[in-house]
Predict the structure.
Amino acid sequence: MIFAIFIFIFLIIETMLATFVALHAWNHRPARWFVLLVASIALLNILSFTRHWASDERSVYISLVGIILFLIIFEILILVLLSTLFVPQWWQGSRPIIWISLPYIIVFIVTAIDIVGRTGLFIAGITRTEDNYRLIFVSPGVDILSSLFFLSWLVHLGILLVAFVRQPDTRRTISLLVIALIVSIIMSYFARSMSTVGTLTLPVLTVLLLIALAYAVLRTRLLVPIQVALDLALQAMDEAVTVIDQQGRLVYANARAVKWGLDQEQSVITALAAIGTDVTLDRLLSTTTALSPWNQVGTLTLNQRRVTLTTSAVIDRRGTRQGLLLMGRDITETEQYTHQLEQEQQRLALTVSQLEAEKHERTQLEAVVRQLSLPLIPVIEGVLVLPLIGNFDQERAEDFTQVLLEGIQQHRARLVLIDITGILVLDATSAAALLRGIQGAALLGTRCMLVGIRPEIAEALVTLRLPLDTFATAATLAQGLQQELRQLRPPGYTPPSTNGNNRSNG
């Protein structure tokens, strides 16, 4: 009765562990293997209970051989669970876990054939001694089977020890598992006796091991939120993300990659072939290294979108290359904006060229206007006339001195008649500019004469208090020219008469 209560308690504990782990980490691969492991242990406990209460030889035999077979299954599940927890690379690429677990599967198949067919390779039958049933083991087969069980535990310990060295963050978890496994190895030989103590030893040890394994699964389950968050981030990316293993098989494609048709191995090969003959999947897998993490492959059209492809090697923590990351970035709008920008630049360049041409024309026109607004007219040798017309503003006043002095130098003038008949208003600024020009001409040895002085201009000149003795004046241009011509006549010269007597004498 006590044994039945113990078995029932163990089953409840195991079921609670499996349910708790399944509810909290079912999307974590080790959690699913843990549930299968718990199921196998539960069957082992049920078979142990059946063997303890069985009264006939057939039921005892079925229970005992069932325990042996489920122990082998238990070994296989332990191997698979430990590999998912601490050696995830065994599940990548060519999946070495298949070949590593193959010997266990072969042992299970051979043992099952021996038990069902009763070939006598490991078990010859069952016997009753002292009110207890025992299996009749055959040597050396049973010794080989026991050695294989022992070696399998060494494999488990080897996995944990390697992970303990290479993964410091798992050392606490591995320490608990190692302790549980060592205890299991030591006590496994006592379980073969199938006595009452031995029968209770198996459930006790499995519960101890399951608690340690549940802790390991739930501890590694802490990585699941990060993995989910990363997957959500990858799915939400505008870039297409495709992961290819070292054998060229596509193992991941996010939503954008699916939308663009990069969710199949053949579609990736076709896309790479569309870029160029030198860009192939085999070439990328063999040449992309950690030293060159990102390599732009080229640009192509996918699903009416312009996409640039970039590759990077997938390197694990040991520096081993595990595959290839292919990232596609949509540059359709970028190319459109670039094209529009180029067109806008060309348009702006044309506009600037037109503006520069217009500016040049305007500059030439202004030069012509400036020349026309301040024309220097040679009337006789050494005499120039400079008529001023319109508003004599500040800009024209500044040009006045330059034009005057340059004209004097060019024509070697000795006299300049400045005709101000056309000036509408003469203010202080205009008068000062006139005075500066006249003074500058005097420095070059040229006399200046103001002609065409109207009454209001004369009044303005007096009001402004200009030094009128520094230059000559005349009422009109004709008077100014006559004054100059008189100065040029030799003494005693009489101009020829133009009346009728002269014509008759002729």
